Structures are given as C-alpha cells and as structure tokens.
Amino acid sequence: MKKTSLVISVFGLASALLVRPVYALDLWQAYELAQANDATYQAASAQKIATDEQKKQARAVLLPTVVAAGALRSTRETFHNQDRVSETYPASASVTLTQPLIQLDSLTAFKQVKSNINIGELTLQAARQDLISRVVQAYCNALLTQKIAQVSMDKQTTAEQQRKMAQRNFDVGNTTIIDVQEATAAYHRAEAEAITAKSNADNALASLEDMIGQPINEPLAALTASFKLKMPVPDSQAKWVERAQAENYNVRIAKLSLDIAKLEVTKRAQARLPKLDFVASQTWKATQLNHDKDVKSRVTSVGLELSMPIFDGGLIGAQVREAEALATKSIQTVRSIQTQVAQSTRSSYNQAVSGLKTIAALEEAQKASAASVRSNLIGYDLGMRINIDVLNAQQTDAQTKIDLAQAQYNTIIGNVNLKAAIGQLHDDDVRYINQFLESSPETLREQEVESASLQQLNDPKSTSRTVVVKSTQ
C-alpha cells in the first residue's frame, strides 16, 4: 500500500464531519429566541413604554385639575377661671377647579415630550437593528470558530499521520531523522492550535447561548455551497455615506435631541413671563356638625389668578445660559455623530465590497491549495518531494480554508452593518441570510457528493481525477 493511502481515511472522516445534520439551529431561530431573551433589547422595549407615558404627564399640566378636600375635627377648650369645658365639632369640605390659561413654558415642555417620544421610538428601532447585528455577529463568530476548530482537528490528524509515515520511513532507512523531527514539531504545533481553537469555539457558542437565553444542544446551520452575496446598490460609497448621515438612527436621535435642547432654552426664558389660571372653588363649612347649634355656610369663588416672578436671585438667567450652552453642545454632538457614522459607513462599504472580491480569490486559492496537497503527496511517494514540502502544503491548504470562512462571515457582517448605517436593517435581511444556512435535503446531497469527491481525489486507485459538483443555486 502506498503512503498516500494512509491519509485517505483522515480526509474521508474530515469530509464526513462537514456534512450538516438535517436538524440544526439556524440564524432565524437564534434571532427569534434573542428577541424574547436578550436583556439589552428587553430593556430598550421597557424604556419605550416608560417614554410613552411622559406624553400623558406633560399633557396633564395643560388640562384642568379638580381637587376635593375635607376636614372633620373635634376640639375641646377648657376655661380654668370659669371651671367649664367647651367642645366643638367643626367640619369643612371644598372642591377646587384650576384651568391653566397662559403657561407658555408648559406648552414648550409638551413639545419637548413629543420629540422625546419620537426619540424613544427611534431608540427602540435602533435597538432592534442592534439586536440583529449582534445576533448575526455572534452566530457568524460561532460558525467561524467551529470551522477553525474543525480545520485544526484535521490538521492535527493529518500531522499525526505524517509523523507516523516519517517515523516508518526512518525506521527502514528511507529518510533522515530531520524528517521525523519536522513532522513531530508540526504535529505538536497542530495539537496546540486545536486545543486553542476548541476553547475559542466553546466561548463563542457560550456567547450565543447567553444572547438567546438557552443552551444550544443541536449543531448550528452552516453556510451552503450556494452562498453568494451581491454588490451593494447603489455602487457608490459617497451615496451610502450621504444617505447614512441623513437616515442613520443615531443621527436622527441626535437631531431630535438638539431640537429638545433648543426648546429647553425657550422654556427657561418663558419662566419670566406671567402665568394666568382660571380658578373656581366651592367650600362648605359647619361649626357644629350634626348639633343643634350648628351653623352651616357655603362659599363659592370664581376668578382668574395671575402670577409672575419679580425677583429670583438670578436663577432664571443662570438656567437660560445653562440651556444655551447645552444646546451648543448638542450641535457639536450632531456633527460628531455624523462624522462617526460616515467613517463606519465607509468601513462597512469597503468591507462588503472587498469581501466579495476576497471570497472569489480565496475560492480559487482553495482549489489550488487542495491540488497542491495532492501533488505533494504523490511527489512524496515518488521521492520528488520531502516531508517538509507536504507539511507546508497541508498548512497552506488549512489556512486557506480558514481565510475563506473568515472572508465569508466578514462579508456578511459588512453587509449587515452597511444596511444598519442607513437604518434599513430589518427582519427580512435575517431571512435572506438564513436561506444560505438552511439544512435542506438538496444541500445535504450536495455535501455528500462533495465528501465523496474529496475521497476520490485522494484515492490513488481512482481512475478519475475530476469530479463535477453541481450547485444547487
């Protein structure tokens, strides 16, 4: 048996592990679970409810108020010089109605609350976008670390087989101790990488579990061979930046906060103006409740009440200047956020565009590196290649697989962040990505063909060296 046959079982096992089971946790399921369990999103939802109640509170200041009051007392008066005691039972009840007529600062405060409610709505939408981004990133990170862990395990297994081959060749005098030492060093490096990769995969999966609020006992649905993303439309970075600076949630929230800050300046200045209220009240009094000598009365009062600050020790002026300074700060905050959004949009656009080109290049590189491994194994059998050549080829092939997976997930995240930059990241985008993760029977059959192809390509007894894998796309 040739030495290349020793690694056939290894490649076959590794390929079999790449076949996904039919039942797997996909991205959409993870997103639905995160909506119900993610603490950050639930906190944003609760904050939205609290913000909505502010409108009722601000409106209540402008509406009439009716206050009812009553009192019943028992008094005992002792006259020491007359040696007598007087007991009385006075009672009173009143109803007072107050309707603000002119309170400009209260009207301004009501306008502020309306803007604040709009901020609450935008904040909740931004939190939903943030949840999508975090779920996609956590899911992709879990898939990537699992891929790295699997490739690292394959590297360790093939390195172990290569070490055994080198040792046997050395034992029969076909190679030198240098080959054995190189193979041994490569095996232990692969072993260390596999340990680290497994730990990273466990940590990434735990992060996803924390987000969805439950343990993940089933495999994650991975990318299919039909995974393809399109170029961003419009195909112009400047247009994406321009749109993001106008439609990004953080920018819109900052602009509304600026409006509130400007209204605060107006409200503070209006505190100097007079306030006019309509007041009506009726009061019932009894000097001796339910007694013979009881004297009852009723007082009705209707009128206007005017109030205006005359001297406040400089309080209002200081409050106005403080509000003006905060408004200036809000202007600069809007500029700062627009700059940050522009930078992140450019970065996301470049990540999405360059990612597509990187994927195409790495797909070709993966084909070449796989062919290089096969060629070096054959060359090693024929004595045309040495052990280190095979090890280097296997190392390059493994790293190319990792780089391709990294490029795929980075491209997905770049597209997600690009849509989030313009406030257009929705549930449909999760569904769109999820279609490339579905464990359909067609996908499984395709993966089985790919697995068989890998075994055939590494089988020296095979008469065919070319296997065409039909895409499901």
TrEMBL record:
<keyword id="KW-1134">Transmembrane beta strand</keyword>
<keyword id="KW-0998">Cell outer membrane</keyword>
<dbReference type="GO" id="GO:0015288">
    <property type="term" value="F:porin activity"/>
</dbReference>
<feature type="region of interest" description="Disordered">
    <location>
        <begin position="447"/>
        <end position="473"/>
    </location>
</feature>
<dbReference type="InterPro" id="IPR051906">
    <property type="entry name" value="TolC-like"/>
</dbReference>
<dbReference type="GO" id="GO:0009279">
    <property type="term" value="C:cell outer membrane"/>
</dbReference>
<keyword id="KW-0472">Membrane</keyword>
<keyword id="KW-0813">Transport</keyword>
<dbReference type="InterPro" id="IPR010130">
    <property type="entry name" value="T1SS_OMP_TolC"/>
</dbReference>
<feature type="compositionally biased region" description="Polar residues">
    <location>
        <begin position="450"/>
        <end position="473"/>
    </location>
</feature>
<keyword id="KW-0812">Transmembrane</keyword>
<protein>
    <submittedName>
        <fullName>Outer membrane protein</fullName>
    </submittedName>
</protein>
<dbReference type="InterPro" id="IPR003423">
    <property type="entry name" value="OMP_efflux"/>
</dbReference>
<dbReference type="GO" id="GO:1990281">
    <property type="term" value="C:efflux pump complex"/>
</dbReference>
<comment type="similarity">
    <text>Belongs to the outer membrane factor (OMF) (TC 1.B.17) family.</text>
</comment>
<dbReference type="GO" id="GO:0015562">
    <property type="term" value="F:efflux transmembrane transporter activity"/>
</dbReference>
<dbReference type="Pfam" id="PF02321">
    <property type="entry name" value="OEP"/>
</dbReference>
